[in-house]
TrEMBL record:
GO terms for biological process: cell differentiation; chemotaxis; inflammatory response; regulation of lipid catabolic process. The keyword Signal applies. GO terms for molecular function: signaling receptor binding. GO terms for cellular component: extracellular region. This is Retinoic acid receptor responder protein 2. It is found in: Secreted. The keyword Secreted applies. Residues 1-21 form the signal peptide. Its main location: secreted. Keywords: Chemotaxis, Differentiation, Disulfide bond, Inflammatory response, Secreted, Signal. It comes from the Eukaryota. It comes from Hucho hucho.
Length: 163
């Protein structure tokens, strides 16, 4: 009986964590959700990816609004594998896997009127967390800082973001 109760509690915890992650995603501002969606599209396009991934949590968010509906976004976040296969349409029942490492993603891009601009090309860098080195993290941030938009524009990481 105790084993059944334990199994029920663990199952409820897994379902709640999946629901909390979906809630965390839905609470992101729209301009950040579009970046997460872009990273997920690139991730599932790789043939080696077998599972569906969901947004897990934000590590760092930074944005600059320059006016005239132009903005620059930097977002560092985790994706987590689910037990659902790649290509799953209804992800509401997808429970997180705890046997796969998190994927650490950093993305920076320019927006105009709430849409991601094609130029300059958005930068998306996602890697399994254990493989991510401090040098790689520095390279990511440097790349986003030096993305050349137009002379005189602010850089993405010039503002102080929120965690």
């Amino acid at each position: 009986m105790a084993a059944l109760l334990l199994l029920l509690l663990v199952s409820a915890g897994v379902l709640l964590s999946s629901i909390e992650a979906q809630e965390a995603y839905s609470q992101l501002p729209d301009n950040y959700r579009k970046g997460v969606d872009l990273a997920l599209q690139q991730l599932i396009s790789h043939s080696g990816v077998r599972y569906h991934y969901l947004f897990f949590k934000s590590l760092l968010k930074s944005d600059i609004e320059l006016g005239f509906d132009v903005g620059y976004i930097y977002h560092n976040f985790y994706l987590k594998a689910t037990k659902c296969g790649k290509g799953t349409v209804d992800v509401t029942q997808c429970k997180f896997r705890d046997d796969r490492p998190l994927i650490d993603c950093a993305i920076c891009y320019k927006t105009f009127a709430g849409e991601i601009e094609k130029e300059p090309k958005p930068y998306v860098h996602c890697l399994h967390k254990p493989a991510l080195t401090e040098d790689m993290k520095t390279t990511r941030v440097d790349h986003c800082r030096t993305m050349s938009y137009q002379s005189g524009d602010s850089t993405i990481l010039a503002s102080k973001g929120s965690k």
